[in-house]
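Risk register update: the risk that structure generation would not scale has been downgraded. Supporting records follow, first protein first.
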Amino acid sequence: MKHIMSRKETSMLKSTETPVKFAGDRKVTNHATQKGELGTAATVNDKNSFGLSASRCTNRTPFCDSCYAASTERQWNTVFEALEHNWRAIEPHLDDKIALYKLLAVGVEESIAQKVKRNVPVDKWQFRWFWDGDIPSQAFAEAMDMIAIAYPDVKFWVYTRCFQYVPTLTAENLAVYMSTDMWNWEWAVQVRSENPHVMFAFNGKDWAETQAVAELCGEPRGLKCPEQVGRIDLVEWSEETTKAGKYVGEGACARCDYCTVGKGNVRFAINPK
């Protein structure tokens, strides 16, 4: 049965559990404001994603040596600490889907409230699982699916290398992409044959390699990420401004909406030029 937590329940959870820290991802945001000179720097005004440290990832392949999120952690210790805080919050509950659901639903509730406050249309409500890190347990995957069912107006999506959890992620508003490269493509093909609802995110050092991985899988190669090829800016600024005179913008993923609804296979390259 669908259950959206009441404000009383949310308040109680905040006072009794270690809260997780949700992130404001520029690419995912529906509402960013100008930070400094107009460009890619932005203040993100909605918490729209969840992550764990890349050091907690399982099912890594040699491709992961070039992980952009891990690089961000190394560059900004505050990011690493926030992600490790999330690990400490969820670790006691890794086998308890109900406890995980309650912890994570608080953040989704807050994300929705922020979007409502800024008059974001319902059809633009989006949330990304694991901007960094990956699914840590079967119970966590079950909690993700439960949350998607509980919040049908939100478009959730995830890129994962934890293919063992893919059969659990079946909610209609949860788009699942298997991050597939030269080292794990055979497993991905096997999982896809049994779970036709999932899609491939082909990874490579360049576009030629992403196409080669797609060919190995016998799959349509899919769309090159529009932000990576420059078709969409990381943040698209509008003519709207805040009372303080700062421009308002929207992230690339929020504008593109390809992965958020699982339109098809997609490709990402380390060197996209």
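Supporting record for the second protein:
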Amino acid sequence: MMSIKNIKYLLVMVKTEPLHHIKKLFEFFISFSLSVIKKSEIDYVIAIYTLGKSGSSSLLSTLQRKFSIFNVYQLHFINCDYIRENHSDDFAVRNIDKANNFLRKHSKNNIKYISLVREPVSREISSFYQNRQLYFKDVLPNDFKEINNLIESRGYDLALNWFDYELKKHLNFDVYSQSFDKAKGFSIYKIDSNAELMILRTDCINKFGIVAINKFLNTDIKQMKTANIGNNKSNSLYQKQLKSQFKLSDENLNKIQNSKFMNHFFKSEEIKNLYKN
């Protein structure tokens, strides 16, 4: 459920991208209203526990409409030490509050975790445009050379190592010690008597995502609701333009291609095709 701090954050963000964030606030109040009048159909909690800009907002919107905002949570970080060391104070406080609130309320509940996997360069481009008005105000959205350099200088460490920083530490579950179905793009794991985990590739959502989610949650969702896609049309166009001309350094290309993240979740041929240019 969205906290007061997160509502305040959205209200601040309305000033930077009015239409997008007004829509998000509207979506929240619709989901809240439906949740108040609708009895929950499930006896477990759903935690979309995943790195941001991986498709989690669309999944959150879909599941909160289907079930209830009181049963469906979105968490990007639970490892508070990592957040404090690597993010701004405001970002850290908001995410630590969300994590502590979730852990306090649901430490004894049955929990179904969903983590999403997205190709690192696309995720970083999407993240840049999502946060440009907060952290990169002076960078024009069509200054592709500058944005390319900024993303390259920041690197891809978080995208490549999130499962170790977060999931492994919080759930004591090493995804890399388990097999992953690369053909279908998702796998389901039993963590312990109270917790299960589904890992789903974002690029496979349209093909197998609904089947995977329905299987995991024993439900009958017909289609995914889109939310937070590129923030707005202009940003979406800028992202497409940047992706078409993005230049990876040899160092970062080798790091990504040889990472355990890419080789665990993607086929060798897929990795070659993703970075062939």
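Strands lie at 45-49, 72-75, 111-117, 186-192, 195-201. On this basis the risk owner (M.S.) recommends closing the item.
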